């Protein structure tokens, strides 16, 4: 009897083929079809980008932190964010931070140093250079221009 199940026996090969077919049917009929894989991808996108947006003002935010949070490699996270946003993580965070800085410059009277700290930058000079590179004006010039346009709009 035992001889039938030795590797190479016809019965063993038949059982192996049946098991392979069963697994293939199971994969095909599984809840993890292409549609559910797409929804899992969308769920991961939502979770990762949501986390990045929640943590965007944390100066410690990095690929390593994201990898630890989601149990994925930093390399995978980097590629994933680039595919989803068209930007690398650093550019995505910078864009997010600069939009918040613009909002704070327009809507508050907070000193620039305080805004810089709130949006996650450690060095004011570095932030001012980056802000000017992206907008064409310093944060002070940006705020003054918005104040002028608000006064002119109210008159």
Write out key terms for the chains shown:
155 residues; 8 helices; elongated; mainly alpha; disordered N terminus
Topology:
Layout (H helix, E strand, L loop, with lengths): L9 H20 L4 H22 L7 H8 L3 H12 L3 H19 L4 H7 L5 H12 L3 H16 L1
Written overview of the protein:
It is a single chain. The protein contains 8 helices and no strands. The protein is elongated. By secondary structure, it is an all-alpha fold. The protein has helices at residues 10-29, 34-55, 63-70, 74-85, 89-107, 112-118, 124-135, 139-154.
Q: TL;DR?
A:
This protein has about 160 residues and is mostly helical. It has eight helices and no strands.
How large a portion of the residues is in β-strands, by DSSP E?
under 5%
Q: Report the sheet with the most strands, covering strand number, pairing sense and barrel closure.
A: none
Roughly how much helix do the residues carry, as a percent range?
over 70%
Order of helix and strand elements from N to C terminus: HHHHHHHH
Q: Number of helical segments?
A: 8
Q: What is the subunit organization of this protein?
A: single chain
Distance between the termini: 100 Å
Instruction: Provide the structure class.
Output: mainly alpha
- Let me know the number of strands: 0
Radius of gyration: 27 Å
Question: Could you say which overall geometry the principal axes of the C-alpha atoms support?
Answer: elongated
């Amino acid at each position: 009897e035992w001889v039938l199940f030795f590797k190479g026996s016809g019965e063993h090969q038949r059982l192996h083929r049946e098991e392979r077919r069963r697994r293939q049917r199971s994969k095909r009929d599984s809840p993890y079809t292409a549609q559910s894989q797409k929804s899992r991808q969308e769920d991961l996108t939502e979770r990762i980008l949501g986390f990045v947006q929640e943590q965007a003002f944390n100066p410690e935010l990095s690929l390593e932190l994201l990898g630890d949070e989601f149990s994925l490699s930093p390399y995978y996270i980097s590629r994933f964010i680039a595919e989803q946003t068209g930007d690398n993580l650093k550019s995505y965070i910078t864009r997010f931070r600069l939009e918040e800085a613009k909002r704070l410059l327009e809507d508050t009277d907070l000193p620039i140093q305080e805004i810089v700290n709130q949006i996650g930058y450690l060095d004011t000079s570095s932030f001012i250079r980056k802000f000017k590179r992206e907008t064409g004006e310093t944060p002070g010039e940006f705020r003054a221009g918005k104040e002028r346009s608000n006064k002119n709009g109210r008159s």
